[in-house]
């Protein structure tokens, strides 16, 4: 069938074992996993189907398409799915009656959930998404390796920026050139997001007032975008000297996403914006020290808010005014919007092995966005950077 | 805020009026529209929020982010959304008690649906997706104009293929070069799909045996892909002389997607594959004549199956063996997987103004995929092509 690298079988086995402990803890008979990314995480294959994970014993991947490809890729047993009615019978004859069943309530569409749940007439659905996402937040050595390769690719892009960026080019042209280089490195161009209606293309490559345009995207920088039908990120606006050029880009390697932001400027940056940029670097350093196992996620956000308030920049932090995003960072991995979320509502503690993109940014309407972002690994000694491009402003001669 | 082109206000008004007729026909008090594409279609804005459309009277767009941007883009009244509890009160104090409510059951996640429905304690949910998608299937002059611009961009790519394709380049490199050119034309790189777990990056640019690798994607050609985490489309395999190079690409303009497939070959194509390609052209011509208002969608697929069976190629049609897709074409518009679907289960009639991508293809395992695809408009005289690149095999000298 094919010779593509596979997720190691031991990796899949460890993931299933850990997930089954959660199922036991929640006193579930099993979980019906339906989302492509969760299925990939728990089987090693992203073929189309559903995965039944019993509280103990071997899971089974019921595949619609392609069965033959799933057989090659998955490290769990594969069977043709058939119709939903038949599937219910297959599952219960193999695994017994299912009374309490985990489903992914944050992603599984309502209509499909009703149909799947009809397979278990006495089954009570329980939302299993948060615990599964919490498990996925802690990365294995295999996963870290994939992220480190992705980080080296975005570093290469930053090194090339001085020769790519030219006054008078459009944001879209700059974004296209960056994406082209990432594609040649094997970036598939799909940046998976779990959040309903959230989507991302490359990231936010934008400058000046266009970068400061607010938008629907739940992040600290929006961007004007190309059209009202794609209202975020790069636009057709021209990049001019003296304005901050936001290069917030992602690279995907073997499914794993890293996220990194750097700022470039043609000529000189306005002193106020440069000071704000320096403050984002300080916020990042503070987070690096604070980010140890056991520290609640919300503490890093709270500390950043303190530093921003001291500087009198609260209205500009993570967007402007009403359009501010209310977080400092987000987990990355197979999805762009993973746990942890560094935000007020989250009391959960950081754990060794979690991977977080931390992205303090300031928006100045009409002038631009400045900020920085690294993807980090949580270790006993604090946050260890996975992305490693130079954090200095990238200065491009005006002439 | 910004000067981007807007969806004309009369366009939005017509769409709302038509949708309200459906709500009345279904005896609904209103519909709560939550999906970004449906919201864009019915308001002109893709900002994050929910749209309440009463059975009659003015709809209201409750926006989370960005309210200020939605006010500029939307042609319906905008209000800050607030928390879900407050939203329920706001809606019922403005629109009265809601007893029967339309929701998009095919896309709205289960957990979110439960929360939204809790706003209407006596409300009975009804799936409004299919009728809304049916309405969206029929395009206005404004929408056709956007599609025609997109078609001219994919035509330009086909014209460039003889100078882009070189023996020994990888599929990924070819895909990257094509995508780069489309990006410069304003392609945002997001190809929206409505189907759960379905996703697309550019299309399928693949050759030889890699193109014939089956995958999860619900289409006639899969492709090996770059990794098991992105198992479709272009791979790192090398393009060799004598094998069919499938260039199945999409371009998005103002949110509207066209889909087109052409085949290139370096040197000479195997006679059996070339004959199969000629048969796909004949199937397309037959569909062009048959595709008139009133004809059931399934008839076009049934006729194609007949022609394929006469040629003894049934096992190869729209994928191979167990991995065949069971349709001939699909609607395109703001989403890649719109109505109509030309498949056995669909008795619905074609209507003037529907736009369909028709894509007969044959898969030969180990050898490649051949086929053709145009995006068409349904007219009284049959299907009128919107994509218009030459349908001849693109022959590239081997030396």
From TrEMBL, chains A, B:
Domain (Peptidase M24) spans 145-380
List UniProt keywords, sorted A-Z: Aminopeptidase, Hydrolase, Protease
Q: Which residues form the Creatinase N-terminal domain?
A: 15-138
Residue stretches spanning the membrane: none
Domain of life where this protein originates: Bacteria
Q: Which molecular-function annotation in GO is an example for this chain?
A: aminopeptidase activity
PANTHER family reported for this sequence: AMINOPEPTIDASE (PTHR46112), XAA-PRO AMINOPEPTIDASE P-RELATED (PTHR46112:SF2)
Instruction: Name it.
Output: Aminopeptidase P family protein
Q: Which organism is it from?
A: Paenactinomyces guangxiensis
Taxonomic path: Bacteria, Bacillati, Bacillota, Bacilli, Bacillales
